Structures
1.
Amino acid sequence: TTTNFSLQFNNKVSNEIKIEPKDWMPDDYRKTLIRQISQHAHSELVGMLPEANWISRAPTLKRKAILLAKVQDEAGHGLYLYSAAETLNITREEMYDQLHSGAAKYSSIFNYPTLTWADVGAIGWLVDGAAIMNQVPLCRSSYGPYARGMVRICKEESFHQRQGFEVLLTLSKGNDYQKAMCQDAINRWWWPSLMMFGPPDDQSPNTLKSMEWKIKRFTNDELRQKFVNVCVEQVKVLGMTLPDKDLKWNEDKKGYDFGTINWDEFYQVLKGNGPCNTERLETRKKAWEDGKWIRDAATAYQQKVS
Ligand code: 3HC
């Protein structure tokens, strides 16, 4: 009976036994996992676009090769995550339809433009840095396929973060123009990176259940705080500043207090009114249409050989 199944499910979660695709799970658990994993996958795919803008404009061949490797990694992350989501009985086509129709979200951060080469550094350091903060705990998520996909993704994320920081470090040792470019990118990417962690806990409809089911191990605000604490130290190495005059060490909480995040901006971006939302979605839809002949050829071949 369902009660026995749900007892078994709750026992597994509380005893840290992974839930696997063939296990019984509450419908809402399945639904929230499909929601989170598919949107995570969409974020990886859309996340390739801002940086792709600089692959042909990288300042050296070495930088071009590193950026190319990073963007290819993001594509791979997307495919791992779509595969993890498929184990929950949703098809790849359904997920793509949800992205293209606007029914599914992707991370707000990818709706901002990459205006200079320093943006590639700021994205690596801040966006991939925030992603690591958020994704390391997901390696311990209660759903097996998601947790295991995260282990591989986190290893690559660390390379993404390091190469981004190194781009900024190089610029911070350059001439005044390069220093200004570095600071400008940090100023533009700092606040949107804090928004990546999601709304404040008291405005997060999913956090409570996700914590109970051990999908999430920390709340949005807890991870955001950890991220701020780390970045305040790292930005000193760059000799740069973070664009928040309210940053102040708080001995009681052993962390930095920081300024107010512009949640109106966050919700506007989620509604599709960010600087690049239309462009990003149009690019994804065009890629899907342009790839139709390859999918059709592969299907035709499959039918021929089977
Ligand atoms: N961008 C877009 N939507 C966001 C968002 C953001 N930054 N933060 C929250 N939301 C959405 C949520 O999806 C939810 O909407 P939904 O119910 O329609 O899905 C709503 O806002 C309320 O947020 P909640 O906090 O209640 O939702 P969650 O509990 O799902 O928490 C999350 C949001 C922290 C993003 C969580 O979904 C998560 O940890 N996802 C996995 C990690 C992820 O997706 N990261 C995105 C970046 S991927 C990346 O950076 C790639 C790297 O290689 C660069």
Note: DSSP finds twelve helices and two strands in the chain.
2.
Amino acid sequence: MTSNSIDSLLHESRRFAPSDAFSAASEASRDLYTSAKEDRIEFWADKAREYVHWHKPFTETLDWSTPPFAKWFADGELNVAYNCLDRHVLAGNGDRTAIHWEGEPGDSRSITYAELTAEVKRAANAMAALGVGQGDVVAIYMPLVPEAVIAMLATVRLGAAHSVVFGGFSAESLRSRIDDASAKLVVTADGGWRKGKVFPLKAAVDAALANGESSVTNVLVVKRGDNDVEWTEGRDLWWHDQIEAAEPEHEAQGFPAENPLFVLYTSGTTGKPKGILHTSGGYLTQAAFTHKNVFDLKPETDVYWCTADVGWITGHTYVTYGPLANGATQVLYEGTPDTPNQGRWWEIIQKFGVSIFYTAPTAIRSFMKAGRQIPEQYDLSSIRVLGSVGEPINPEAWIWYRDVIGAGNTPIVDTWWQTETGAIMVSALPGLTTLKPGSAQVPIPGIKIDILGEDGTRVDPPNGGLLVVSEPWPAMLRGIWGDPERFKETYWSKFPNLDAPKYFAGDGAHVDEDGDIWLLGRVDDVMNISGHRLSTTEIESALVSNHIVAEAAVVGAADEATGQAVVAFVILKSNQEHAQTAAEASALLRLHVAKEIGAIARPREIFIVSELPKTRSGKIMRRLLQDVAEGREIGDTTTLADTTVMQIISDKLK
Ligand code: 6R9
């Protein structure tokens, strides 16, 4: 073993080939791989023509003359909102439902493409009247209501860019994001519904704008929570008043392919949040192409549901832009999965006949914890494709997802990508790929991925290394807002000596003998145990493969004997919580890990906990657990979905 690679120890041999019927009806064909291999650039040019309406056709595909700054389709012009709206109406699909919206309290609203187009036109006129135009940034701080999507589309219809901030983030986070991008307008709501209560949003906007100078001239407020709000005359305006007063007609104008579409802030582990910049033509091409092929979308008949909030990149690409560009019918749900009961999501799937369902491993594991008897009460037979995103999915959670939600025969696509990549990069295609639980599998056609050692040489199976994207791709980030140096340094400086710049994503991965990619987690989380570099993912998967475990997180904690030692935090399944003592459970699980992957990976300690610290998009924040494991004061918890979790964990372990 050298420190050049990450050890890979977990073996997973289950395989699931697509059924003949599924393959025969599949949207994607092998030709996609063949043509992308023949000429990658021409492939993307084709896809851009096929998936996107151009106001002015492009003649150049990729300009990579000043890496890492790429331009795709640069002399073309498009209007992203027109692509998501007007063109479907003009093609005769105005009566198709675009959004089945379900509010947490049970109110619901279905909106056709014609209606959505009409609303976005009015919203665009209302925003234009407030001075919004090309070059401006609109901050959107909303619950998951249709107006969040409408505000995004109205913004980009005008050639302006949005910056969506999670409705759960604090006034302070909102302020820093508003300031960093010099947002001109904020769109918010009085409040939204979450866990059976209204949470205020407007109040946080007021606080964010309270001190000193701000670039914001107006705040548009959607009425949703009916909670009391303070009002700053001259600045604050009710959304419904403005929409009502706005002109109904709005002609979409073309903007350059490289016109900024949005900024989305990622927190990262250190330093101030990075404003990831995406532009229009390349982003929309890859969003629409992947949405169609990875999910095998049939827009006439499918009902698609991605459970992500629009505050996450997944909500940008696979709630707003991909599905709407493809003319899909989708579900949008405002609340949490367990309000008012633990079957809420399954009830929604049954109600709307959802056929494509895309969610995160964290959600799947929390359903595993509660038990299969809950989803089994619902009719989920409409489902024909399942997707996963956000973290590696443990093989056992994958199997549970397929068996319990997918009736034992539904393909699962495990999609690897990032805020920075803009769209899916690695995934199975459900009609073509023989699935392996726990592997994200293959680069999508037109994407070039390599797994390298620290020295930049390719790592051979079965060892792991660093996952890099070796060629520019259409939906790639174009920079960090206002900070080109940080962009180069953060993503492109890992392998300065290679002849072409390579994008380093921060994740570890290994490739198996078939060429399938297995993600190993963030390389910052890799542990060094007696000189062996072990990934968190495999040990977590080994823990989850025991029938008593619902969820697990492991960290490396300083250890005198071995440098670092594995420390695990484990949530038991609900029906196991009282079946044994914590000491018995941890003894059993230490043995289990040793048996599954070897003694080297056996945790020094296992803590049985009831919660794990997670971000708003459901990622486990291991550095906070490492603070606990090493007995340090707990670091910055501001990006946690639930800031009380660390208190609960440390109290329990005292
Ligand atoms: C889309 C999204 C990106 C990071 C990424 C990786 C992890 C996402 C994954 C996955 C393994 C998958 N990640 N999908 N790891 N398998 N299918 O999640 O974007 O919030 O920017 O996070 O998430 O570590 O680097 P973002």
Note: The mean pLDDT is 95.
